[in-house]
Amino acid sequence: MHIRGVLKILGIFLIIHCLGLLPPIFLSIYYNDHQLHDFLLTLGLTLGSGLLLWLAFRNSAGELRRHEGFLVVASFWVVLSAFSALPLVIGAHLSFADAFFEAASAFTTTGATVLTHIDGLPKSILFYRQELQLLGGMGIIVLAVAVLPILGMGGMQLYRAETPGPMKDEKLTPRIAHTARTFWIIYMTLTLSMAVAYMLAGMTPFDAFGHSFSTISTGGFSTHDNGLNYYHSLPIEIITEVFMFLGALNFSVHFLAYQNRSPMAYLRNPESKVFAIIVATIILVCAITLTMQSTYSTFAESLRHSAFQTISIITSTGYTTQNFAAWPSFLPALLIFSSFIGGCSGSTAGGIKVIRIMLLVKQSYHEILMLIHPSMVHPIKIDGRTYPASVISGVWGFFALYVAVFVIALLLLMAGGLDQITAFSAVATCLNNMGPGLGEVTVNFHSLSDWHKYILSFCMILGRLEIMTLLVLLTPGYWRR
Questions:
Q1: Rounded to two decimals, what is the model's pTM?
Q2: What does the alpha-carbon distance between residue 104 and residue 23 come to, in Å, rounded to a whole number?
Q3: In three state form, how does the secondary structure of 104-143 look?
Q4: How far apart are CA 333 and CA 327, in angstroms?
Q5: d(CA 418, CA 420)
Q6: How far from chain centre, in Å, is Cα 14?
Q7: Half-sphere exposure of residue 383, counting CA atoms within 13 Å on the CB side?
Q8: Backbone angles phi and psi of 385, in degrees to 5
Q9: Using one digit for the tens of pLDDT, what is the confidence trace for 171-210?
């Protein structure tokens, strides 16, 4: 185990993270909101820790193997959440458990919050929360691989551990650094485009950039207690729906659409098509049910709210314009379960991912056919592409671990005193990086105990790293030579 190399890279990543503290520092000076000391202290602690690690292990050399890649990624997300919590402890006067939960939620783009009276928070703190989602959406480790190819320490191992989806070895370009840079260019282009659209729709520049950070990243934090309801604007809702959907699509498809200057890449991609069909079906089911239950006066109004909440929940963004927990019949459960599907692989969304659902369905159908025709050879194909047995096995392994983690976390929360509905939705929303829940966590997670918050913070990081990256560190075989 090349621990010295791991610590060196961890130090470099902490130094890079310090760049993210500069905008809140400038905003604190501009607004004179008395948070400058807090951010400077955080900057000093983070930079000092990063420099200490880098200086201590700067002479370490060697290629980063798969083992070390997992360790760097997993440890970095935990360590970064802890360092990112410091301004919230010092400036917002939160307990460390609350601050760690909030920082982990922002950085994993979960969007679950423990804060109340958000409108009264200093502007620099509000911007900082939104910015953490921007960095976490594409993954600061992919950013580091993109801008620091001079590391020369196995960037592909970091990329494989960080990027979501079952096909982790695929690259759009021959060099991994170029691939990561391409993703970030697309990511920032979408973010800036959305900010401009928000301003044209009536948002202030501060709110426009803040909400664009949390929409493309499918994070869901807002700069207002009432979220997007603060504006009561249909154009803003439509803009948000479009970019939430785009954030949940595979960024490889965005790349192909940009490269070919044609939207046909979206229509040709089977995962994108299935995702669109799932979203449209759930929207229609919700709209019809709300109309039949007379929840809203017209079908158009039901369709408006159904579309926004469905896209928000299934993409794991978690914005709410309506209290969907109070919707009639099976709709709250339907929306929570849709978050398990999540977005497409290679997106900023959480959940199991559409491509895995497609492969699970096809493999299940294959098993049924094998009962009828035992000698039949029936490879698993999607859009003419055959998926090897190793990928199918990996998908089933991921699904089994996903269910196991969910059950264990659910039982731990219930053992800590939560009711079944609250515990179920809390684990679902954190493991799927989605945000709002049911029961006690419909609005926020402030009422939960520190024990609950640490468990759910762990679930957020597990969900963001797609479980295996973190759980592999808990196996005895990982630490054997």
A1: 0.88
A2: 20
A3: HHHHCCCCCCCCCCHHHCCHHHHHHHHHHHHHHHHCHHHH
A4: 10
A5: 7
A6: 20
A7: 10
A8: -100, 125
A9: 555 566 677 778 888 899 999 999 999 999 999 999 999 9
